[in-house]
Amino acid sequence: MIDSFEKSGTKIMTGAMLKGVTEAGALVEKDGRTLEIPADDVVISIGFRPVKSMAEEIRALGYEVIEIGDGEKVGNVMTSIWSAFDAAKGI
Ligand SMILES: Cc1cc2nc3c(=O)[nH]c(=O)nc-3n(C[C@H](O)[C@H](O)[C@H](O)COP(=O)(O)OP(=O)(O)OC[C@H]3O[C@@H](n4cnc5c(N)ncnc54)[C@H](O)[C@@H]3O)c2cc1C
Question: Is the pTM of this model over 0.70?
Answer without folding.
Answer: yes
